Structure formats: C-alpha cells, structure tokens
Amino acid sequence: MNQITLQQAAPRAGQSEALSDCIIEELRRYDEHLCDVRGLAAGTRSHRCLIVGRFLHQKFAGCPVDIAKLHPEDVRQFIADQLDVRRTPSNASQLAAALRSYFRYRTTCGDQVGSVMAVITNPVHWKLASLPRALKPDEIERLLNSFTAVHRWPKYGYAIVRCALDMGLRAGEIANLMISDIDWRSGTVTLRGTKSLRQDILPLPMETGQALADYLEHERPLTSNPAVFVRCLGWRDQPITSMAIQKVIKRACCRIGLMHFSAHSLRHTLACRLVENGSSLKEVADVLRHRSLNTTLIYAKLDTPKLSAVPLPWPGSGS
C-alpha cells in the first residue's frame, strides 16, 4: 500500500491526527488481500482502504485494532457521520461496499463479524434507472475548441480529451499510457493493467494519433520517462496521476459551462455515439472493454429507433 493511499485515508472533518502505525499495518494487510486474493484494481483498492482507514481511525485511534471490540452501533455511527459530509446514494453504496469487503476479509482472519455486518444496508437504488450523461455534438465541438493558445499546455489537454472521447479510455488508463504502447505503423494502442486486469489492443483513431503526436513533438517535457503524459516535479519527471487527468477534463468542461460533466462522461459520450450510429450493445461493450454485457445495458435506453418499436399500439388507435 503506497504512501499516497495512506495520506488519503487520513481523517476528515477537521481532524488532523495521522493514522496510527497499527492502523497503517492493518490497511497494508487488507490491501494485500484485495490485490492478491480478490484481484481488485489499484483504484478500487485505494478507495476501499480510504474508507476503512477512516472507520478504523474513528474507533481505534491511539490503540491497537481489535475487531472483537466493535459493536453494531460503531458501524451505524460511522456511516451516519460520513453521510453527513456527503448524503448521496452513491456515497452510501460505496461506504457499504467498503465496510462489507473489510469485514469479509476479517472473517478470513478468524473474526466473528456477523453482528456488525448485519447493520450494513444498501440504499434503495433502481438498476438502470438513470440515463448516461453524455455531451451533445455542439458541446463536443466547444470542448475540443476550448484548448487554445491562451491556455497553458493546450496540446497536452487536447490530447487527453481525445483519448477519452475517441477511444473511451478511463482516466487511469490515460495516465498509465506508455510511449511504447503506441504502435504508429499499425495504428494501435496497447492497454496494460486495465481495470479488468487484462491487456487490450485498441485501434488508434487518426484524430487521436495526430493529437498525441502534436503533444509529443511540441509540449512534452524532455525526459527519459517512458510515460506519454509526464509532469516535472523539481528535478524529477513522473507520470501524471489519474486524478490529474480527471482535473484536466473537468476544468475544460467547466470552462465552456458544462459544470456537471466529468472524465467518465466522455466514455458515455462515445458509447452514445456508437448506439446512435447503429452499433450493437455487444460492439459497445467491446469498445468500452466491459467484462459483463450487463454493464452496457444502460445504453439500450438511448436506442430510440428500436425502443419506439417496443410499445404496443394505443387501444383504438387503428380505427
């Protein structure tokens, strides 16, 4: 478990105490379990350790972690405190998933945690109830045209947006992209260490390739670092983080008045364009690299021509 994750797991709400050595060691073991046994991606592990770290700090700050001393009320109080900070169904679901995951891990250590797990409930959330938030054609054009010379590093931001918009890459996949992953001759990009923990080869669209080449030639720092997107920190050059990718896209959206759009919205935009152009759900799933077709079902609600054939005729409409 890296230092960044441990810092993120620090307490909220004005508390400045650092995590104790006991909690840090407990999170390290939990993170190893998530990686080696559960096979979860780094981003998912980091987020779950963040929540569990805050929970353990609330109960065991300054003392050893003793799961036998946990009571159902401790879990209820922690969830209530966290929801006071951000009361949304998604936050409640994330809290429940992280705590359940941690207590399942503790059962593998021999702990009896049935009573505390019993109080963790998911909020009511209807599956596929919402529509994917995607950019309209004019908003896409405004977003791409927003990277002008008046802004700092326009080619850098433009290349990042094209990777997300044209190829549906996640923020972490853009951040982990290496120069050697791009095959300019065959026009492909190899993705390694993706969310699904597999290697994928994707076609490189011409506009995306031109944006990447323009950035690499004119704005990328002179460095021996193999990452495509690099930042200079003092005398060291490091790949940028997925958080930095998200901020670049978020700022660009805010710049043109799209306050509620994020990096993931660009994946939704690509999927919506594919559906509108007649692609099947299986083809959309392949482009987005979904492990399950159920994840892609949300985009079926956007296929207006096919949906129009579903309702039955209104009684008496034929007369």
Give a short summary of the structure.
The protein is mostly helical and 319 residues long.
Description:
The chain is mainly alpha-helical and 319 residues long. It folds into 2 domains: 3-117, no CATH class; 137-303, hpI Integrase, Chain A, CATH 1.10.443.10. Helices cover 50% and strands 6% of the residues. It has helices at residues 3-8, 21-36, 42-60, 72-85, 89-108, 114-117, 137-145, 154-167, 171-175, 206-218, 242-255, 263-276, 281-288, 304-307; strands spanning 182-183, 188-191, 200-203, 230-233, 236-239. It has a 3-stranded antiparallel beta sheet with strand order 1-2-3, with no helix packed on it. It has a two-stranded antiparallel sheet with strand order 4-5. The radius of gyration is 23 Å and the shape is globular.
What is the overall pLDDT average? 83
Poorly predicted segments = 2-8, 10-16
Give the SSE order as H and E letters.
HHHHHHHHHEEEHEEHHHH
Structural class: mainly alpha
What is the CATH architecture annotation of the largest domain? Orthogonal Bundle
The total number of structural domains is 2
Write the layout of secondary structure elements.
Elements: H1 3-8, H2 21-36, H3 42-60, H4 72-85, H5 89-108, H6 114-117, H7 137-145, H8 154-167, H9 171-175, E1 182-183, E2 188-191, E3 200-203, H10 206-218, E4 230-233, E5 236-239, H11 242-255, H12 263-276, H13 281-288, H14 304-307
Antiparallel strand pairs: 1-2, 2-3, 4-5
Helix pairs in contact: 2-3, 3-5, 8-10, 8-12, 12-13
From the structure above, extract its key features.
single chain; 319 residues; mainly alpha; hpI Integrase, Chain A; 2 domains; two-stranded antiparallel ribbon
